[in-house]
Amino acid sequence: xxxxxxxxxxxxxxxxxxxxxxxxxxxxxxxxxxxxxxxxxxxxxxxxxxxxxxxxxxxxxxxxxxxxxxxxxxxxxxxxxxxxxxxxxxxxxxxxxxxxxxxxxxxxxxxxxxxxxxxxxxxxxxxxxxxxxxxxxxxxxxxxxxxxxxxxxxxxxxxxxxxxxxxxxxxxxxx
Length: 175
Prior knowledge:
Elements: E1 11-19, E2 22-29, E3 32-40, E4 43-46, H1 52-69, E5 73-76, E6 82-86, H2 91-94, E7 98-101, E8 109-119, E9 122-129, E10 135-140, E11 143-149, H3 152-174
Antiparallel strand pairs: 1-2, 2-10, 3-4, 3-6, 3-9, 5-6, 7-8, 8-9, 10-11
């Protein structure tokens, strides 16, 4: 749950860590994480979720997904990542291309272009994120079954410690 936007994203819980008495859950989206992107030179640039460009391009992308896939897929503006709801065909069946970008989308993140369209003179690509998307939430004091996504300030403070816990546990598991 993103309380600032009053929106939510369904996730599968992957791991739990307790830090300074607060329990954090690390999960991955239940639906397919995607992004709207465009090329700037050779770099694939993601459209920021809270940008004016996203505000103008998302409804267009949503309607194109609906036209292209009908009831099979739906594009959702979920917190921290866009998601496609429904069953997505295997990349081999779609015949679309994979792009590996070394600069813009988080150093060597691979994506698969699902569809492309033009919006206000800019070629926009809806891409499937091939690297795992992990989200971190803390227990909601009002509803123990729900998690509240971390704010960017909380994330900057907590994530290094959570990463350290998981790296330490991973090393202990391999010994």
